[in-house]
Amino acid sequence: MFGTDSTADRRLTVGRVLVLLLVVAAFVAAAIGAKAAYAALRPADASVIALLKARLPKTQVSKVDCAVVDGLCEVTAGNNLFYVDRSGRYLVIGRVYDMETRQDLTATRLLEINPDTLIGGAAKANNAPEGGEPPIAKAVGASAPAAPSRISLDGLPKDGAIVWGNQTGKTVTVFSDFRCGYCRALSNTLRSMNVRVVERPISVLGSRDLANQVYCAKNRETALHQAYAGEPLRNAATCDTSGLDANERFARSHGLNGTPVIVRADGAMIEGYRPKEALASFIAGGRS
């Protein structure tokens, strides 16, 4: 009859309405979820995110944490890391050190963001992106392998070494500091490899007291990993630590001012953290 929809037409209309309702419901759910996630942020974090969206519109901010460093907010944007004040006006590019715990907080966070990247000895800046936005600190990839330096370990006594890992594997000597974030990352990587590690602590970051505790522990290997994990060392003991003094003298006389330093059995030496693949290649006899 004229003016009356057919059964097929009515079904088509109902189907379109259902699809429209589903689309609207999806948008509403997404909006509610986003609002809930935003509301879950601390007020200071949420405020800084809003300010950064206005002032750095081309920077995709993935996380803001204003509770890490008093007076500053740590901003994560992909593999990049920088700091701003709570007004969102001042942007800080560089490394933040905790002088009480002797920790490089920026290095630790960059390794957490991407543990498979090589981090340079200093926070490096990107080229400024389009739109004139400022460069920010970033975990940077390793450059082309370079020929390693060489160093003789003949002047070191047997004392002062903490030997751990696979005792039948290839040997690598590591000069380390228990408060060094790069050293902790290196230790975790070496634990997953079939190698024998001769670790020689040196106090670059004021960690000699901790090195003494690890060296004098009943089980040095266990104590070493506890120290890197920030766990308290139980059953502290005292012992002859003159071997650690020898490590310090050796490091000073050879200009080893940073950690970690990794020395192969043939004396080839590289400085700084390396990902597992690069370490395996170096230990096997390749370049860094």
What would a concise description of this structure say?
It is built from 8 helices and 14 strands.
Structure description:
With 288 residues, the protein is an alpha+beta fold. 36% of the residues lie in helices and 19% in strands. Strands 1, 2, 3, 4, 7 and 8 form a six-stranded antiparallel sheet that branches. Helix 5 packs antiparallel against helix 6. The radius of gyration is 27 Å and the shape is elongated. The chain starts with 6 loop residues before the first helix and ends in a 5-residue tail after the last helix.
Rounded to an integer, what's the Rg over CA atoms? 27 Å
Main beta sheet: strand number and arrangement?
A: 6 strands, antiparallel
**What pattern of helices and strands is seen along the backbone?**
HHEEEEEEHEEEEEHEHHHEEH
> For the terminal residues, how far apart are their CA atoms?
85 Å
Percentage of residues in strands: 15-25%
Determine the fraction of residues in helical runs and give it as a percent range.
25-40%
The count of helical stretches stands at: 8
